[in-house]
């Protein structure tokens, strides 16, 4: 950034040398500054030079919720929210869902390219052979109350992994980063399934190395007395597709949490635990729970107009609709919708909520209130219906999201550590409180 004119009478820049710049005039001083534009972005720190006088701290930018602030450079996931495009490492999500497995996508996110046969074989082998957790983790989880929320259990147990692998702290060691990546992707389904079984009072089921990643998860959830659980291939495939769809979504709340916490150079298990916490919230991954509760509350198709009226009066939120980035149909919601019937057929179940969801979507998309705000179904709108058909209790829906998102979180974490511009995340604030107040002794309060 360069200051162009000091107190020029017109208050305007005399020359703008570079077309890739922004000319800013500070009307308080009449000074004009040239700010570099790179990648359609200006740097917030370039504004710090803009001061009223030498004692002035300098201009800051204010962006609650980071609605227009890029916090990093990333080559993992591309989203065009206006057009409803989602690509991982440049490959459209539709194609990945059709042609790849979840573990291939997890590899793609973490290593930047689709694995060849040998690489995939090794990757799947490693993930499969790291699914067991230390027996003390099991005892640790058994200590939770019988009705503990599965996301709370998952959050705590992922954080606890850091105490089982203290060497993971050495985040400059490539091997430690690699083995932590494997362990996190491998163990997350085990922890999630233990949390689910705990909530039902059932014994935990150990991983089965003969099964696929989604097949093993189904086994750990549902295996009872049978010697070997045999997953229905249609459910296995549907679950794998759901895992692909939830694998990464660039700088969302939970990925940003992983990066913010990880920027302190803490171990990866603690950083990923921050991601699990971010995902727990109802405005993020927790929305799939609220969608089902909303559909249950609506109860029948005839009640939809009244419900939408309540939403417009801001007494209700239309869960599963709206997105910070998508101002068009979320491509993930479209793909999930296309799998709902298949899952219902495989499970032989009828969802009482599907008709309500379809009609709710139709009426909302016909309504100016929602279209003018560009509110469309997001990834959470239909996923709950599938989870319910799979027999997953509502409280465990969000752990279904956390399992696949782990590959995205760890890819974001690894990428961050290689970023030469990495700094500890430490935002500024606009202080609104009192200053230099007189201290009141206890006796006078
Ligand atoms: N229902 C009703 N109105 C909505 C909704 C909704 N689901 N979403 C947004 N709006 C309205 C807002 O009230 C606002 O209206 P206004 O301009 O008249 O005040 C306008 O649309 C813009 O919405 P914002 O809240 O400013 O959008 P933001 O980007 O901050 O929020 C969010 C995005 C949190 C996802 C929001 O759309 C929401 O709360 N949706 C419901 C929860 C949900 O489904 N979350 C899952 C998102 S996907 C995921 O995280 C995996």
Protein architecture, described:
There is one protein chain. The chain contains 17 helices and six strands. By secondary structure, the protein is mainly α. It has a domain at 1-61. The chain has a three-stranded antiparallel sheet with strand order 1-3-2, with no helix packed on it. Strands 4-5-6 form a three-stranded antiparallel sheet. A hairpin with a 4-residue loop joins strand 4 (77-80) and strand 5. The protein is globular, with a radius of gyration of 25 Å. The model is unreliable at 2-16 (pLDDT under 50). The structure holds acetyl coenzyme *A (ACO).
State the low-pLDDT regions, or none.
2-16
Span of the ends, CA to CA: 51 Å
Strand content: 5-15%
Please compute the radius of gyration using only Cα atoms: 25 Å
| Ligand inventory | acetyl coenzyme *A
Shape: globular
Mean pLDDT: 93
Question: In order across it, which strands form the biggest sheet?
Answer: 1-3-2
Percent helix among the residues?
40-55%
Tell me how many strands there are: 6
**SSE topology string:** EEEEEEHHHHHHHHHHHHHHHHH
Structural class: mainly alpha
Sheet having the most strands: 3 strands, antiparallel
The number of helical runs is 17
State the main characteristics.
445 residues; mainly alpha; three-stranded antiparallel beta sheet; 17 helices; 6 strands; disordered N terminus; binds acetyl coenzyme *A
């Amino acid at each position: 950034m360069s200051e162009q004119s000091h107190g020029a009478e017109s208050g305007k820049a005399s020359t703008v040398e570079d077309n890739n710049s922004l000319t800013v005039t500070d009307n308080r001083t009449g000074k004009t500054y040239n700010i570099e534009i790179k990648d359609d972005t200006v740097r917030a720190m370039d504004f710090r030079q803009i001061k009223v006088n030498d004692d002035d701290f300098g201009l800051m930018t204010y962006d609650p919720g980071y609605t227009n602030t890029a916090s990093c450079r990333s080559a993992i996931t591309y989203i065009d929210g206006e057009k409803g495009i989602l690509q991982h490492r440049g490959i459209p999500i539709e194609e990945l869902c059709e042609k790849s497995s979840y573990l291939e996508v997890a590899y793609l996110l973490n290593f930047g390219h689709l694995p060849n046969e040998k690489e995939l074989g090794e990757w799947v082998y490693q993930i499969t052979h790291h699914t067991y957790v230390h027996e003390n983790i099991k005892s640790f989880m058994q200590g939770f109350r019988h009705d503990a929320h599965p996301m709370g259990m998952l959050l705590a147990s992922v954080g606890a992994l850091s105490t089982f692998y203290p060497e993971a702290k050495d985040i400059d060691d490539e091997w430690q980063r690699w083995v932590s990546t494997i362990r996190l992707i491998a163990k997350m389904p085990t922890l999630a399934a233990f949390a689910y079984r705990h909530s039902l009072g059932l014994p935990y089921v150990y991983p089965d190395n003969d099964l696929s990643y989604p097949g093993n998860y189904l086994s750990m959830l549902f295996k009872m007395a049978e010697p070997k659980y045999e997953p229905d291939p249609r459910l296995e495939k549907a679950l794998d597709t759901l895992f692909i769809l939830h694998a990464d979504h660039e700088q969302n709340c939970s990925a940003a949490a992983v990066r913010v916490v990880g920027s302190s150079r803490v171990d990866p298990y603690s950083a990923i635990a921050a991601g699990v916490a971010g995902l727990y919230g109802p405005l993020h991954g927790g929305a799939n729970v609220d969608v089902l509760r909303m559909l249950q509350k609506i109860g029948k198709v005839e009640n939809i107009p009244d419900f939408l009226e309540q939403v417009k009066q801001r007494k209700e939120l239309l869960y599963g609709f709206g997105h910070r980035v998508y101002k068009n149909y979320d491509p993930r919601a479209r793909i999930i919708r296309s799998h709902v019937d298949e899952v219902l057929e495989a499970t032989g179940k009828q969802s009482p909520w599907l008709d309500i969801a379809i009609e709710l979507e139709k009426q909302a998309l016909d309504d100016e209130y929602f279209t003018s705000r560009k509110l469309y179904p997001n990834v959470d709108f239909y996923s709950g219906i599938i989870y319910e058909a799979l027999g997953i209790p509502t409280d465990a829906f969000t752990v279904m999201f956390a399992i696949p998102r782990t590959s995205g979180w760890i890819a974001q974490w690894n990428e961050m550590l290689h970023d030469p511009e990495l700094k500890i995340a430490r935002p500024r604030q606009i202080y609104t409180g009192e200053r230099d107040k007189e201290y009141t002794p206890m006796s006078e309060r």
